[in-house]
Amino acid sequence: RTAELDSICHKAEVIPVITIERIEDAVPLGRALVEGGLSVLEITLRTDCALEAIKRMKKELTGASIGVGTVLTPAQYRQAEEVGADFVVTPGATEALYRYGIESPVPMLPGVSTVSELMTGWQYGYRRFKFFPAESSGGAKALKAFGGPIPGAQFCPTGGITVDNAESYLSLPNVMCVGGSWLTPSKLVEAEDWDGIRKLAQEVAERFHR
Ligand code: 3PG
């Protein structure tokens, strides 16, 4: 599981966290990001069309890794499996999710924001986590401190990450990538400005390339 998540997360320093409002945006938006150089995407289950969007993106965006985010329950985890998710991301983690994730063929990146939560996930055998909400949970300083007691855990921080603070996380030894919604500004998406999205992705991919 850990190796599988590593191979996905190391494909991109930055993972766009995408909420699809209009189903017809899914494929062109995803394609713009992938063409710009960001080939790992997280689609949140926050809208009615999310599952259909993921299905279409899986079919059309060959070479991309598609994660399903905002998974709150094992039932949603199952839905993510059914639409072909490459990985599952949760904002926090429950015992039910941890147990489900161990048995699932699709790896999970559980969300944690404290050392206690991290210890629970660690006990279940998880080694890769989402740090959420990163900026309001102590930011890069907190994450750096997590590396003291549990140096083997690696994180994808999200929540309040921007082009200006991404580097403060990416420079930490326990950060594998960062995520966020800043790659899909609603102004560009609403205007269907796929060229604008592609350029933004390109700038970000070049700037944070390691
Ligand atoms: C997430 O689920 O990871 C967040 O909604 C992304 O946070 P952001 O909108 O602050 O980037």
TrEMBL record:
Keywords: Carbohydrate metabolism, Lyase, Schiff base
EC number assigned by the record: 4.1.2.14
InterPro entries tied to this protein: Aldlse_KDPG_KHG, Aldolase_TIM, KDPG/KHG_AS_1, KDPG/KHG_AS_2
Record-linked Gene3D superfamilies: Aldolase class I
Involved pathway(s): Carbohydrate acid metabolism; 2-dehydro-3-deoxy-D-gluconate degradation; D-glyceraldehyde 3-phosphate and pyruvate from 2-dehydro-3-deoxy-D-gluconate: step 2/2
Catalyzed chemical reaction(s): 2-dehydro-3-deoxy-6-phospho-D-gluconate = D-glyceraldehyde 3-phosphate + pyruvate
Enzyme class: lyase
Family note: Belongs to the KHG/KDPG aldolase family.
Subunit structure: Homotrimer.
Protein name: 2-dehydro-3-deoxy-phosphogluconate aldolase
